[in-house]
Every structure is written in C-alpha cells, then in structure tokens.
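User: Teach me something about this protein's shape.
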Amino acid sequence: MSTTQLENLAETLKEIVGDKLAGLQIQHGEVTIGVRAEDIIAVSETLRDNSQLRFDTLIDLCGVDYSTYGEDLSAKQNLRNKRFAVIYHLLSVELNQRIRIRALAENDEFPVVDSVTEIWPVANWFEREAFDLYGIVFTGHPDLRRILTDYGFIGNPFRKDFPLTGHVEMRYDTEQKRVIYQPVTIEPREITPLVIREEHYGDCQS
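Assistant: First, the predicted structure itself:
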C-alpha cells in the first residue's frame, strides 16, 4: 500500500473504530492498531463487517512475550507494561488492504483474550498454538488444547523464562522396552560461540 493509502486507512479506522482504539501507528508499510483485550470481539466484528474496511480474512495470529522488551521500546509501542499480547494479521481481499492488531492481555500471570473463532474460523488452530506456546487462554474457543507439544508437556516453550533445555527429556529404556520421560540431564551452558581472530585479521595488504 502507498503512504497515501495507509494514511487514508488510518483515518478511516479512527473514524469507525473510535474510542476502542488503544493505539495506532503506521510502520513498515502497514497500519497497526492496539485494542484492549475486552474489546477484541467488538473491534474484530467491525473490521470484518464495515463496508469501508471488509477485513474478511485472518492471515495469521500469534502470541508475543514482551517480558524483556526495553523500556524505551515499550513506551514507544504503547505496551503499558503488559507482558503478553496476541497479534492478528488481517486482509481485505475486496479492498486489497491489510492491517495488524495488537491485543494486550491484562493479567501477566494468567493471560486471557477472547477467541475470534466465531468471526474468523481459521483462528482455531492459531489460537491453540498461542495457548500451547505462550499459555494465553482464549475464552470461548471450542477446543482449546495443546497442538504442537506432547501430551503432559509442562510449561510454555515460547515464554522467555522457559529454559532452553526444557524441563524433561525422553529416551527409550531397553529394560522397560518403552519410551520414558526423565529430568533433563544436559548441563546448563553458554552457547555464545568463541570467536578467535588472528592479529591484523582483515587489514588491507599492500
């Protein structure tokens, strides 16, 4: 979209969505709006049904953990010191325009956002993925359960405080003749590579 189209879309959003906009910015050739978690259903229905918007297609949905996001960046992005968010990427096929939504979960300990599966059914598996990897609960989801990790998996592996090694590992036990789970045996270690350079490496040669 051109700069003029982006600016026109931004003005249309301000006019139609109104006081439910918690933020709006134009960056990287896209419009991003912020909405409160409590308003995601109402805003999504407006974006889909309004004749000037017609965002009929949900392209993607994912979770985000902002726990180590810099303070300056957090202020710039209007994150209000919230840890978890759900990001939605929408497309209007008819009007050939795109938009990104950021919905911040209010509770960092138990992040909850309403499900949009009734509005865009394709959200079903996307929301399950965000639930599995980030622990974000989507109220109203018809079948909210893990989708990528194993049954009985503990924790949410995309949270920034989840250990790189995980909590458990599995192996085949020859005596029991089955796969078993056990605590991780890998020792914690730094994975930053050691870089060794020769003296005067890269200097121009005469």
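Now, about its shape. The beta strands are 23-27, 30-36, 57-65, 84-92, 97-104, 112-114, 137-139, 168-173, 178-183. The mean pLDDT is 88. If you'd like, I can walk through any region in more detail.
User: That's plenty for now, thanks!
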